[in-house]
User: Fold this.
Amino acid sequence: MLKQSLRLTGLVFCAAALGVALPQPVLSAPTAWDIANTGQPYRDVSFTTTEGTWMSVDVSPDGKTLVFDLLGDIYSVPATGGDAKLIQGGPAMQRTPNFSSDGRHLLFISDASGAENVWMCDPDGTNAHQITHETQNLIMAAVWGPDDDTVVTDFIDGRYPRRFASDIRIFDVSGGSRVVVPTPANKRDVAEPALTRDGRYLYYTERLAHSFGIYIDGTHINYAIKRRDMQTGAVDEVASGWGSAMTPQVSPDGKRLAFVRRVLDKTVLFNEEVATSAQRAVYDDLDRDLQASYEAQANYYPHFGWFPDNRHVAIWGKGKLYNVDMDSGAAVEIPFRVQATHRITEPLRIQHDMAPAKVTVRAIRNLAPAPDEKTLVFSGVGYLWRKTLPAGSPERDFYVWSDTDQKYLGTRVIFVDTESSNWTWDPVAKAHYWHRFFSHQPDLNFDNPEVLNAVLQIMRFWLDMGVDGFRLDAIPYLVEREGTNNENLRETHEVIKQLRAAIDAHYKNRFLLAEANQWPEDVREYFGDGDECHMAYHFPLMPRIYMSIAQEDRFPITEIMQQTPDIPDSCQWAIFLRNHDELTLEMVTSKERDYMYLTYASDVRARINLGIRRRLSPLMENDHDRIKLMNSLLLSMPGSPILYYGDEIGMGDNVFIGDRNGVRTPMQWSPDRNAGFSRADPQRLYLPPIMDPIYGYQSTNVEAQIRDPSSLLSWTKRMLAVRKTSQAFGRGLRRFLKPGNRKILAYLREYGDDSILCVANLSRSAQPVELNLGAKPDRGSVAADKGLGHLHAALGAVEVVAELGERVGHVVLLVSRSRMGTRYPPRC
Assistant:
């Protein structure tokens, strides 16, 4: 059977460590859920109460207000007691409110989205919105981080049996998370996080038991309170012993710790002086804690809070709220009165046929496979049954199999240099498997829903790690259908829409980049209506830039750009000169491909897969003027430019290294050992650095070029600075001018008040040019060009007459008179 380490064809993730062990897939695209409108009959019940069960309570930073939960609603009440005011109510379960350090926001747990997540609101309950977006996993408790921009949570993997274990994570309010306290070695839970005001120390409860047990003696040593130094990562145990220690709450000044412990048959509130670790019992009229539970809990005793005087705490016990003096142990009741209204939904009742003619067996017993593993015998509803087993494991269906290699004959082979067919025979499975790329990279079967779930789970893993987006490699080939060429199918777009919807539902400012080596009108479909990919590579433009330079003719560039359709406003093209693969020539004619080979790859060793495996600088014969011209075109064309690492310093390649690895050599940071890329022994590097006399790391490296203002790296930095001066480069309209001299490429980039004239001489000699810009009587000009050749423009001019030096590019910014006082960057 094929190894599970095979490449997931169709998705390449923008992260470096794909070998991490990942959890099994559970995530699926969310369905709409409105807990306030289930469609079931209901009735409202109102009542008044002055006591409650299992109430979490917190104190405002000024000590004047308490917030507490009661029967799934959240209320506020003056710290001295009185009538409670509803803050968060309704059918959703809301619990465990927590004030921010400035008192301007409340944090709470709610299942309004269909699963328990962290929410925040103003103290009066307005502006409520969701922070985390879990659908399967459990968030048990949450408190504010020190800067009120983060939330510390008790996080449980929602899959059995992992729901017995937990870790502690920090979620950014704006999105993203990281684990700060991992699941203990005993695979049990850590819970009830509490941070000091300065964020230095994190207190939490950890279950010490090393095995599961239905019965737990609460007087034994079951739990301990531990403290993690958030700066050093050091962890120490601050409270434990017989009766355990749970529910830590640290005073505002960080000098005292309140917690609960079982003493004989009572749960007792304790005080610990942090400096000396001295502990003493304070108050014993509390309710029973939950440490005897064998499953992880949100709180082993309800959350309670310190008053700002660092002496008193507000805590629930025996149905009431109390103000407890942590010095004397005196407790004063905080009376409250709640006018509650709750919606009671009628139970769902379904009629069942108790004697159907046909029944689905759900309790299958006594499974016995045959010796040849082809048949399974089992018992159900009093009978023995026999079933023919499918070949292979359940994971077999993650791939595309066939008994014949004659399916999908209308599908082209991409890598004709190495593959003769898209099917390869597997002698273990005794079947052919499908691959659009290499035979060691079988395609995934996206007709299997479990495949999409697995991909979504992997994507979510990396998004939670902080990855900004994903490059969707070979995206047109996700789905196969007989009678088609198996490219750009409707079902493929449906898969992409599901990926996009799942990401948008849980994460902000993340993107999908489509890698589709096809014509622009075909790639346009992968933007959808703004609901598929955010970006897509513009593959046909790249070889035509090289072709225009070689032919000294603007036509290849203008032709392909005029064939490029409009895309949704929220989407963008990704444009590039080189990448980690070959300079692909799929999107040119056979005649043009022969010309490119002759011009740029006369050495046949540089040719691979209908492409050229060379870097930018060797392709330009290390001519810095041509390199600068190429990058000038890249940075001024419509789209987001992508610079391949090393091209900014003119790195070379090694055609003697196999496959595409010749353009994937280590980055050349310095003239030190291994080009400053690694301190490992040179023979242990995956690929050797470039060491030839021209491009070797001893002469071509970042350290040297940073010090040289005339270096290619310094020039690139200045060009990027110019590009950042106007949004016209990234988002502006593009209008080609048509000078009589075809060796000149000229176009306007326009956005708002900015009109940017971009002019490039594609010839190896100086060229005259006359440009008709059209009537713009209200405009002036400011030159921000490379300083090569001669270019002149006058205020209000409609024509520009110029003489351009060989292989040069210019940028002239035409601005409205109202912006003539604006300062622009120096010439570059």
